Amino acid sequence: MWEALGIAVAGLAGWFVFDALRAREAATRIAREACKQYGLQLLDDTVQGPGLRFARDAEGIARLRRSFVFEFSDDGFNRRWGSLVMLGEQLESLQLEPYRLA
Fold first, then answer.
1. Up-side HSE of residue 73: CA atoms within 13 Å toward CB?
2. Residue 16 in contact with residue 49, Cβ under 8 Å?
3. Residue 37 CB contacts under 8 Å (≥ 6 apart), including other chains
């Protein structure tokens, strides 16, 4: 009985870690593409995920809503913040701190 429960908990933890890594990779790709589209430089080539909660999508299905932050530069000398929110594997919002246009 306890062995089955332990296996189930370990399986759930493994799934959560794998899903978190996959979501982080997708968020990094989205941030990289947004920076490229706007002529910005993604700093450190990574995102950080400070937020996680459950939310429902348009069909009413419970999904994980993850928020990520990243840093970018418009001129190579300064650091500005951006954030994105993903619901499941879909981008829900993307925000960039105001920056100078070239």
1. 9
2. no
3. none
| Identity of residue 42 | L
Query: How many residues does this entry show for the chain?
Result: 102
Q: Residue 63's CB: how many other CB atoms inside 10 A? A: 16
Positive/negative CA dihedral, 54, 57, 63, 68 = negative
State the Cα–Cα distance between residues 43 and 31, nearest whole angstrom: 10
Q: Transcribe the chain into DSSP letters.
A: -HHHHHHHHHHHHHHHHHHHHHHHHHHHHHHHHHHHHTT-EESTT--EEEEEEEEE-TTS-EEEEEEEEEEEESSSS--EEEEEEEETTEEEEEEE------
Residues 46 and 8: their CA atoms lie apart, in Å, by 32
pLDDT of residue 102: 64
Residue-wise pLDDT tens digits, 26-50: 999 999 999 999 999 999 999 998 8
